[in-house]
Amino acid sequence: MPKEQKKLAKEIIKNSLYMKAKGLTPGHSGNISARVPNDNEVETLSFLITPTGMPYEDLKPKDIVLVTHNETTGETSWDEKGLAPSSEWQFHLSAYQANSAVNALVHTHSNFATTIACANLEIPPFHYMVAAAGGKIIPLVPYAIFGSKKLSDGVAKAFKNYKACLMAHHGLLTGEKNLAKAMELTEIVEDLAKQFWALKQLGEPALLSDRQMNDVIKKFQTYGQQKGQENN
User: Fold this and answer.
1) Is residue 176 among the annotated active site residues?
2) Domain boundaries, the chain
3) Taking CA atoms, which of 10, 47, 175, 232 is between 20 and 30 Å from 155?
4) Choosing from 41, 43, 57, 88, which is the catalytic residue?
5) Can you tell me the mean pLDDT for 84-94?
6) 15, 151, 186 from 179: Cα distances, Å
7) Per-residue CA distances from 50 to 128, 186, 221 (Å)
8) What's the confidence (pLDDT) of residue 38?
9) Residue 104 — φ and ψ, nearest 5°?
10) DSSP symbol at 26
11) Is 206 helix (H, G, I), strand (E, B) or coil?
12) CB 166 within 8 A of CB 122
């Protein structure tokens, strides 16, 4: 395994152990991937992903699977002499294809996000932080069995405009420019889901308007440590 890929594999394992320790996903459910830069002339999309059905505590860098998709032929492959990738590799591929700004993905079965997803609900703009997922809502992808093309197609549709989505009767998927930010977004969405669930106990939540959310989305573009300036 090349040095940079090994470094990325270690980061995937670190984040896998973190999400397990934080109770973001039970057992060895869920999965994490990271895009691998393409240095070849051939038009390919490659990413490292956790293997299927293996406890996170047992993972070694060599266990993280390199999946390569040839954009010209449509063929997807990995080293069949090694471990098989997560059964969800298809929706990871679809999310990367749909959103070139996403370089890392975290999939969890976290309690509150999964509860909302199992109620067949999207997360509406009850709080301005919903915009952290890239838009005015956190969308819901209709149910399809795990590992299916139908599910990956739904994820692709969501990731064209968002960086997170709920998957009905399944869980949560978040994507960002790196693993640290993808994990941070996972925790943000889980917290929003918890707040939304609590508000639903009181009745229908009051929502921010389209104009108010547009203002938030615009402000998020210059929020935080920007190059050459600092923002509160």
Assistant:
1) no
2) 3-225
3) 10
4) 88
5) 97
6) 8, 23, 10
7) 33, 17, 32
8) 80
9) -155, 145
10) S
11) coil
12) yes
End-to-end CA distance of the chain: 41
Each residue of 18-56: pLDDT tens digit? 999 999 998 888 999 999 988 765 689 999 999 998 999
Question: Which residues are bridge partners to 36 per DSSP?
Answer: 46
What's the topology of domain 3-225? L-fuculose-1-phosphate Aldolase (3.40.225)
What is the distance between the alpha carbons of residues 49 and 32, in angstroms, rounded to a whole number? 6
Q: Which two tokens stand for residue 33?
A: 């991937």
For the stretch 95-98, contacts whose Cβ atoms lie closer than 8 Å and that sit 24 or more positions apart, written own/partner, are 95/155, 95/156, 95/159, 95/173, 95/175, 96/35, 96/45, 96/47, 97/45, 97/156, 98/155, 98/156, 98/157, 98/158, 98/159, 98/160
Token pair of 52, please? 């299927």
* Percent of the chain at pLDDT exceeding 90: 87
Q: Are 173 and 91 in contact (CB under 8 A)?
A: yes
Share in percent of the chain as helix, strand, coil (round to 5): 40, 20, 40
pTM: 0.93
Q: Give dist(CA 211, CA 94) in Å, integer.
A: 31
Q: What does the CA dihedral 52, 56, 60, 63 come to, rounded to 10 degrees?
A: 0
